[in-house]
Amino acid sequence: YRHKIKNARKLMFKKGKRINSRPVAKYLRRESLNPTRNAFSECLSDEAFNFFLLFIVDLLHEFELGVWKAIFTHLMRILHAAAGTIVQELNWRHVPTFGRGTIRKFHKNVSAMKRLAARDFEDLLQVCSSTEVYL
User: What is the superkingdom listed in this entry's lineage (predicted)?
Assistant: First the structure.
């Protein structure tokens, strides 16, 4: 990636091309890169070393707060559209807490999805994957 950024910067600063010009975009657009050099690119200047491999994926915010929240929101819409007491059954649960490190106590109204942090979505995912859900 660094050689693409280096080439884009060369076009911008030596040839006077704009950041949104086609020649610069040819290097940056495919991977959504920015023509910015940071501390990693300065310190780890060996071209063969890919410092992007140093960064780990943050599953809590990448999946639980992103993908799982969208799925849970969609499931809540389906439950609200369905007739019956399905939403009330979701809010009335017999799942005890498992200590501070794992599943914590849920709020009284989980289906409203108010004041839920990423850890709450993680706990909901653990409970939903370990129990049978009947629709």
Answer: Eukaryota
- Summarize pLDDT for 49-94 with one digit per residue, the tens: 776 677 777 776 677 677 778 888 888 888 888 877 777 776 655 5
Closest listed residue to residue 95, CA positions, set 117, 126, 135: 126
pTM above 0.85, yes or no: no
How far apart CA 122 and CA 89 sit, in angstroms, is 20
For 130, other C-beta atoms within 10 Å of its C-beta total: 9
C-alpha 33: how far from chain center? 18
Q: How far apart are the first and last CA of the chain?
A: 47
Of the candidates 108, 110, 122, 115, the residue with the CA atom closest to the CA atom of residue 75: 110
